[in-house]
């Protein structure tokens, strides 16, 4: 139990960082209605670009910006494969993801792992979030606080953006393409734009995680899409009645990421399960959460139909 | 206003499902023409409208609207000139968005989408006034999600959205076909009022011959991918269903008209 409580701040911090990636997934999966598998690659792209630049002594904000832009480029690649080349969105994402495996390794100098030098105290102090800041540091440097601040800032920007003419046209594109085009909206352009924004966020999240854990790893994004979906779904199931406003929905996704990590931490703390089984558990959780609404619709919503029997009193 | 010249369209060419839907259709609409379009299933009515709207490119021929050649423009660019209402009430609106958001999207048809606010306070008041015209109680539900509305309400809203910015051409694709008779009459009534008020050049497909005769100043009947009949002026005003059927028989040498059209 003490073990679990001790690990909680770390789990929450990680949950918040992954939550930013989940918000990226929300944009493609929920708003654009595209399952974008690019994220498994672009998450690492963000981490790799950040760690390499940071290691070269680049200003941390510039390094973060570079990670964000690199992620946006990966989204652009998937978007163009989908719209210009006519490749189905899922496959386009898979192609980019596969290609990114090589690119990520190249960015990291053809090694699968690049660490941030944490032994150099001055170097470590330059970081924004780091698991070492969990203890013995001022409150404003606590990873929960910093990651929370990032999340709040990003939600504010996205809330503003999706309220603009362009943002609204992006939502319309995801909801009804026929309607969107009939209203003069360039749906192809909007899909690319959505993928660009989404993967930018994913890469930013990857950059923050690599700071937090002190390294970037070629396989750090493996299964990211599943974690993102888990956060989106958990957020929806737990908070959908409470959070109707768009900004709150995004907050729900972020909290979904936190819940996910706390649950995973609980599984690790209270059982002797081999950590290698965590991906299986994640996959199972997401499968179940995706199944439930479908089955509810299919098998438990028949009460509506018999009402029509016996005449058209309500017609 | 609209000039369609000799357009052809074949779907699934070179396959067993090959179907030539338009065979050299030419049609000119004058400013303010309200043309009703009838014809049996597969006659090419919807295909003609979709060709004008730019849902896909035509195989040959040309289309111009208000003197602008739009033959090679994609659908979303042609939308600058065109207002549309679809047969399926679900198609014309974004279900997960609010009524006012849908209208705000329509109000920006044909303009660039910028980073300005998606909807302003002034607009809201304006939309509320416009919704009153429909007389469906929607003016009090500006922030309701469109998905909560009935098919008739959605169709009426789509109509309003299509004409919010005066279109050079209004395309109505059997827009009352999926509605119950009472709602259909209401939507058709609103259509008539809006078209008259703004003198909109309109192309309206209908499956109902009576509606086709009552509404508009011109009637065209399609048969096997071409225009078989084109009646306007005094002839149109005096037209009856029987005459229409007889004329159709003369024009095509077919007596299919009766069952196909009356049932279809």
Sheet with the most strands: spatial strand order of chain B: 6-7-8-3-9-10
Number of domains of chain B: 2
- Could you tell me how far the N terminus lies from the C terminus of chain B, measured between alpha carbons in angstroms? 30 Å
> Any idea what the shape of chain A is?
globular
Named CATH topology of the largest domain in chain B: Rossmann fold
CATH class of the largest domain in chain B: Alpha Beta
Q: Helix and strand string of chain A, N-terminal first? A: HHHHEHHHHHEHHH
Strand content of chain B: 15-25%
The assigned structural class of chain B equals: alpha/beta
The ordered H/E elements of chain B are EEEHEEHEHHHEHEHEEHHH
Name the CATH superfamily assignment of the largest domain in chain B: P-loop containing nucleotide triphosphate hydrolases
The number of helices of chain B is 10
- Overall pLDDT score of chain A: 91
Describe the fold and architecture.
The complex is a heterodimer of chains A (315) and B (264). Chain A has 315 residues and is mostly helical. Chain A has twelve helices and two strands. Chain A has helices spanning 2-31, 39-55, 60-83, 89-107, 121-125, 143-161, 165-175, 177-182, 187-213, 224-239, 246-270, 278-299; strands at 113-115, 215-217. Chain A has a two-stranded antiparallel sheet. Chain A is globular and about 60 Å long. The relative contact order of chain A is 0.19. With 264 residues, chain B is of the alpha/beta class. Chain B has two domains: 2-81 and 167-263, Rossmann fold (3-Layer(aba) Sandwich), CATH 3.40.50.300; 93-165, no CATH class. Chain B has ten helices and ten strands. In chain B, strands 6-7-8-3-9-10 form a six-stranded mixed sheet, sandwiched between helices. Chain B starts with a strand and ends with a helix. Chain A binds chain B through residues 161, 163-169, 171-172, 175-176, 178-187, 315, and chain B through 53, 75-77, 79-80, 82, 84, 86, 90-97, 101-102, 104-106, 108-111, 113-119, 161-162, 180.
